[in-house]
Amino acid sequence: MSDIAIKVDKVSKVYRLYDRQRDRLKDALNLTKKQCYREHFALDKLDFEIKKGETVGIIGTNGSGKSTILKIITGVLNPTDGEVTVDGRISALLELGAGFNMEYTGIENVYLNGTMIGFTKEEIDERLQDILDFADIGDFVNQPVKTYSSGMFVRLAFAVAINIDPEILIVDEALSVGDVFFQSKCYHKFEEFKKMGKTILFVSHDLSSITKYCDRAILLNKGHKLFEGTPKEAVDMYKRVLVNQLDDDDEENGKTLWEHDGGETLWRSTLPINPEVLEYGSKKAEIVDFAFVDNTGRYSNVIEKGSEMTVKMKVLFHEDIAEPIFAFSFKNLLGIELCGTNTMFEKIEITPKKAGDVQIISFKQKMDLQGGEYLLSLGCTGYPHGEFTVYHRLYDVCNLTVVSTKNTVGYYDMNSEITVE
Ligand SMILES: Nc1ncnc2c1ncn2[C@@H]1O[C@H](COP(=O)(O)OP(=O)(O)OP(=O)(O)O)[C@@H](O)[C@H]1O
Fold it and tell me: Any idea where the ABC transporter domain is (predicted)?
């Protein structure tokens, strides 16, 4: 028996894109000899192999083809070209709702899913308690699943997927819907699975989980495999893809927020700008540019935990300001302000500014926040005539991803030195 669980051999998936609905109809009915569509390669001659017992992550930007390849592997979609060979019983957690009947109760859906995979009623009976215990959604199991919240849904779907003895587990992003406790329970299950020598293939935008749980990672970009190797290298490469992509998309990406682009390449073009940024202040001084710089000097909003990083901002003064204060802070996604500082707290002397001056401020520090997503806020303020004044503030202007390969408790890592005597 071979040691390959999944073999993807030159797989392409081509969609036909029609400008007009009637072209689609004509094409479907074979009424036209002219090509009335454009071909869109969701996947283009994709090749990879997953060995039995490996945990492999697939990463890539939106639309890079991650879901498409998982659907082809699980048989939900057919490839246009190429071949997929699977050796082992697959259990898949794809889009929420796939494989569930909304009118059935939770328990009925457990039986529906189990039989679809080939289990007898008795075999499902044996596993039912484990499934219900893992899902832990109480009496809701007797309600139709259409009444479930997305969190409950993913609990039940995951409980079914892992308790039916799969040899290969395929998970597409679904876990991000569950609460953190359930996520951690699922990741524990992943570890158990790994120990049992089962194969796991999962797609996630959570780069920390990829580095923590995967033996290998595959980076997709526009339907191609851009990289395959250690998770750390793949995440590193992904950071570069994000930067380049955002350069391409710059026109749509935030340029309209400020007027002072001046035709030069902006640092912030390396960042995904929050379209709902809260911006206010008199703008007598204006934050015209900003970025994160990682420990290699690269502009990136993906930073490794424990590494040195810099928050950099450029301020243009429209009026004379005697004592400006520059500030930054990070919030978590719940809106809790976690840390930050300003040039006044740090007792940094700033010389008086004249209209037309430009000041660049860099805050350099070690990134010890836990792995996860954070939001950056920036500010330029002051106390002219003793009164607190906001010149320019940008709240939650962009996100920062902290990638971590080590778990600790809470918001940040104290980097405890441990002695055992
Ligand atoms: N039914 C469809 N018709 C036309 N194009 C499609 C269809 N389904 C997917 N695509 C295209 O195929 C490409 C790959 O899509 P896919 O959903 O696999 O990306 P993804 O990497 O999973 O993205 P995301 O991270 O947003 O889920 C995209 O360009 C998408 O627009």
Answer: 26-247
Which ligand 1 atom is nearest residue 17's CA? Answer: 4
- pLDDT tens string 142-176: 999 889 888 888 888 888 888 878 899 998 876 66
ipTM: 0.93
Pocket around ligand 1: residues whose beta carbon is below 6 Å from it? 15, 40, 42, 60, 62-68
Cα(31)–Cα(28) distance, rounded to whole angstroms? 8
Residue-wise pLDDT tens digits, 94-152: 766 667 888 999 999 999 888 877 788 998 999 999 999 988 888 899 999 889 888 88
Rounded to whole angstroms, what are the CA distances from 121 to 105, 118, 174?
A: 16, 10, 27
Query: How many structural domains compose the chain?
Result: 1
Mutate to test the pocket of ligand 1, among 68, 73, 202 (most ligand atoms within 8 A of CB): 68
Distance, in Å, from the CA atom of 399 to the CA atom of 212, rounded to the nearest integer, reads 21
- Concatenating the DSSP letter of every residue in 211-227 gives HHH-SEEEEEETTEEEE
Q: Residue 222 — left, alpha, or beta (φ > 0 → left; ψ -120 to 50 → alpha)? A: left
419 lies in some domain: no
Domain at 285, CATH number: 2.70.50.60
Distance in angstroms (rounded) separating the CA atoms of residues 257 and 283? 13
Backbone angles phi, psi at 137, to 5 degrees: -115, 15
Work out whether the CA dihedral 67, 72, 74, 77 comes out positive or negative. Answer: positive
Ligand 1 centroid to Cα of residue 97, in Å, is 18
- The atom of ligand 1 lying closest to the CA of 13 is 12
